Amino acid sequence: MGASLPPKEANLFKLIVKSYETKQYKKGLKAADAILKKFPYHGETLSMKGLTLNCMDRKSEAYELVRLGLKNDLKSHVSWHVYGLLYRSDREYKEAIKCYRNALRIDPDNIEILRDLSLLQAQMRDVTGFVETRQQLLALKPNHRMNWIGFAVAHHLCSNVAKAVEILEAYEGTLEDDYPPDNERCEHGEMLLYKISLLEECGFPERALEELHKKDPKIVDKLTCKEQEVSLLVRLGHLEEGANRYKALLAMNPDNYGYYEGLQKCFGLYSESSKYSSDEVDRLDALYKSLAEQYTWSSAVKVAVLTSTVYRIPLDFLQGDKFREAAVNYIRPLLTKGVPSLFSDLSPLYDHPGKADILEQLVLELEHSVSTNGRYPDRTEKEPPSTLLWIFFFLAQHYDRRGQYDVALSKIDEAIQHTPTVINLYSVKSRILKHAGDLVAAASLADEARCMDLADRYINSESVKRMLQADQVALAEKIAVLFTKDGDQHNSLHDMQCMWYELASGESYLRQGDLGRALKKFLAVEKHYADITEDQFDFHSYCLRKMTLRAYVDMLKFQDRLHSHVYFHQAAAGAIRTKIDLERCYLKFYDSPLNSPTEVEDNTSKTAQKKKMKKQRKAERAKKEAEERSEGSSASGMSKSGKRHIKPVDPDPYGEKLLKTDDPLSEATKYLKLLQKNSPDSLETHLLSFEVNMRKQKILLAFQAVKKLLGFDADNPDSHCCMIKFFHKVGSMPAPVTDAEKLVCSVLEAERPSISQLQEKTLSEANQIFLDNHEDSFMHRAAVAEMLYSLDPTKKLEAVKLIEDSSNKVVPTNGALGSVMEWKLMDCIAVHKLLENVLIDHDAASRWKVRCVEYFPYSTYFEGSRSSAVNNSLNNPDAKTPLNGGASNPGIIQSASSSTSNGKLEAFKNLRI
């Protein structure tokens, strides 16, 4: 580098490079200017100066200088390399790879460029090119361990596992017998474990086990070694020896559920569906009883409380009286001890038929016995007073899970009356009210719980979440700021990648019609996933250097399926369309473009709301400017070095620029493709695909989505609606004129007989058959009614009658209190919106609302008689009732759904103060 310069300037050029590597950018710029003063057209110096400026956030100047340097010296590998580094810093990896390849044409054996190229190829998953580059690096430096390992990993990623094993064996052949030295034992042991996992992956478990036993003295991670050994033994069918190894592992860690699962496999008693025959259940019961005698300190198998032996894992497979006996023995000591997570521990059992009823019966018996006698049945010793409290606590969560909110609230109120200083009680009551539909009171109770322990971040987060669900966004932000850095909630929460907050606030903004802010929140989550993908870049070299090879490969596999995570799915779906009761996002823009006459007419009734939102934004801007001025005048904004901390200014805080898109469907399609690629097994993905492609007039793609929906779940109401809508739309289209339209019609005619629901049937007949097959289902009837109206608008009364004739069935339970209704709150809200907005029958919607109040008296949406909104309006006639749980005064709500006002609670608060 810099070979074309005189000796003095060549030394200055080396100083530029060194200054760049040591981040002394001003020193490097000074040296570059000294060279350019004598040689203003020296290409490599111009490129290095541009690279230095890029690190100083002067990107436009950097690109200009680097391109000028490349123009002046096209045959310099340094200029091409620098150009690639510039692109790499901006995540333009494809362009960076092109620059690196051009540099290698000039200097094909440059190790630094080859190494940088291999990192980009790993990042972009160009596994073929990755193999070639790592092979070239190995040929140039065969005495470098990292090159051998990198070449093996490259073949592993290219699915050539056997070749990777050969490379590692060849590398071991270059080592001396006494290798490794003490300072490299950990790295070498990791490499050996990686090689053993490769042997197992490519189908040589015998060789893997032999290698494990042979190299055991050189492996430092003994626990992983033992786990790998038992896995190989089970795979080879050495079940008795495997069982002994699992028992040895359980002696080390008796709370590892994976070891119990492996032990069951050794005894032939493992089933992924958790379905066992009576003989298998007896054998499993005997196995865990024997284990319970050995591992007395294990919470997974048993808890030692006095002389009781209680089980947890057996509760998953025991049935009937055996389950009841084991459950009693498990629950009693935990209630006595006061374990708040008991219900969470047992909640998976509610998916097993009949077990929830047994739990309800036995806990009610415990409640009756403790409340009357002060002790458990068949016991002589008295229980502490707190036992009754935790019984109430468990029952409240139990009835909440079963949808019996009245009983759940009565139980939690009894618990609060018993001991009003337990924070968990208010959190659970808040959760019950949320499920019952009173979001405002739920937020209030969560805030009350937060105020009882201001140092608890979890309770603070739960309070924020409840406020966002109640659309109290401004208050939620004030609460969230209490646990953020420097009191700047927006930047801190975004920097911490707090995605649950952004998703919840985005959904809240969407409910309130603030689409700009909603999109901003959803797209912020998408940005986090892009950052997570980018963060893997530094690990490509780090993991090879530190030999954490198994973790590295697992990380790459995780990154490959990163966008299938539920948070990304929610964010992408929120940017396209929200679920059930939420409005559309990009799709809404397409249906009603901004400033269109249709939108003006539709929004005349919302003028007051818009003015209010405009005033609110203006006030927020003024407040923000005042805060910035106060920060600028205060000394708190100064660092120790005397430099002022300048917070980045958001150029679009309200997402207004996001709304100004010429083609919203193209934006929706971008996120839809990500969902189709990463969440193809989600029904919602194909529902979104159908809606987007129907609006884009992409008939074949919409038909593909319909076929996917029917293939996943043909009995789903949404699948049925999409099928009817599609063929109804196709049937109403004009006769095909162009060749493309004729081709589409021919494809649809050929494919329609493959849909069993439409074989030799009209759409009306198919709709009626769907009703006959699902007549007892509430949501299926609503779907049929909607399609009936879509096919023939004159049948609106018939469609409305079909919905109103639905009956809310009572699901019987063995419990003594209450019953479970089939209808769910969110389903009833969706049907109300269907009557109001689709069928456009306001009288029917009003009747439906009155009917639902009976079943959901706490719902603020239906203005139930026990909801906080109605109680506030009754107590204060001048107060305005918020619709749909809208933002209201966040103070403690004194109503039937608020917490019990209690002198003991006030005394407790005063004591803490």
Automatic annotation (TrEMBL):
Keyword Ribosomal protein: no
Gene3D superfamilies xrefs: 1.25.40.1010, 1.25.40.1040
Stretches for region Disordered: 596-660, 873-899
Compositionally biased spans, kind Basic residues: 608-621
UniProt cross-references to Pfam families, sorted A to Z: NatA_aux_su, TPR_11
This protein's UniProt keywords: Repeat, TPR repeat
Listed name of the protein: Uncharacterized protein
Organism of origin: Hibiscus sabdariffa
Compositionally biased tracts (Basic and acidic residues): 622-631, 647-660
Matches recorded under SMART domains: TPR
Entry keyword annotation includes Nucleotidyltransferase: no
